[in-house]
Amino acid sequence: MPDLYEGPIIDAHHHVWDLARNPHPWLEPGARVPHRYGDYDSIKKDYLARDFLADAVPAGVRGSVYMEAEWDPEDAIGERRYIEEQRRESGVPGAMAAQAWLDAPDIAQVLASHAASGIVRSVRHKPGESNESHGSGRGRTLMSDPDWREGYARLEQHGFHFELQTPWQNLPEAVSLLEEFPGITLVLNHSGVLLDRSEETLAGWRAALGAVADHPNVAIKASGLCVQGLPWTVALNREVVLEMIEIFGAERVMFGSNFPVDGMFTTYRDLVDGYREIVSELSLTVQHQFFFGTADRLYAPELFVS
User: Residue 108 phi/psi, 5° resolution?
Assistant: First the structure.
């Protein structure tokens, strides 16, 4: 019989937010930005550290990594200070990925401030799309912008990872980052942003992941695997989770809940139990890497439950 993992878990990708107190423009009443999950009005409500603990601890989670949540882009430091406060009060999170606009004039100062905090392990700046075209006929992202890459280069002096959230179709640009900056670990968010499960999409996604996985300075989060209009199920996600582990090796794959966002499709406990079922056919050593070891190595979060 398969062995279900019963050891400790690190949630390597979650949010908390207090919408009455803090500025998140995309979560304001009436705000509607393009989102891969469609209508997201249901998550426009507070999700505090205590709410995360109530979800996560019964599911076996013992540590976590907060992911920046598109706080006011003019105040990256303010978000970090709020998260530092939450950590002091609740123990959540054990580490964080902070907001940092890599092409901003003050990027050096922002990164230095984050580095001095002691809680920041990485930063995220979604590269988006620009109007510049290249040989494939697609638009280049900020990953090809010289100013952005100059900011990216600054991550190494602080020992920061970079959190890359971009559709898998843009990963050829990420290869150039991996090659030019071998001292910076790039962490692919949300499984490479896989929007559907068509055979054509899966074939392209596999090839794109394989190209980046050839480089040692990359890891991936098994997170954000919901599909608009469908519930999160083991059947929907078994193949892609196991393929990520096969492509990268368990030592470079980690679990992330993406809560409360993925709560649009499932409960926290059902999500974790679904992942447990998916990886149960693998060795317990591999399962421990997936649920705990990889995130512990990359983020070293302070555990919030002994």
Answer: -60, -40
Which residue type, as a one-letter code, is found at position 208? A
Residue 212 tokens read as 């980046």
DSSP string across 115-172: HHHS-EEEEE------S-B-TTSSBP-GGG-HHHHHHHHTHHHHT-EEEE---GGGHH
Nearest 10 degrees: Cα torsion 169, 172, 178, 181: -110
DSSP secondary structure string, 58-113? GGTEEEEEEE-----TT-HHHHHHHHHHHHHHH---SEEEEE--TTSTTHHHHHHH
Q: Do the domain assignments include residue 4?
A: no
Question: 3-class SS at 12?
Answer: strand
> How many domains does one find in the chain?
1
Helices (H) and strands (E) in the chain, counts: 11, 8
Predicted TM-score (pTM) of the model is: 0.95
Residue-wise pLDDT tens digits, 200-243 = 999 999 999 999 999 999 999 999 999 999 999 999 999 999 99
Residue type, 73: P
Supply the range of the domain harboring residue 173.
Answer: 9-299
171: in domain: yes
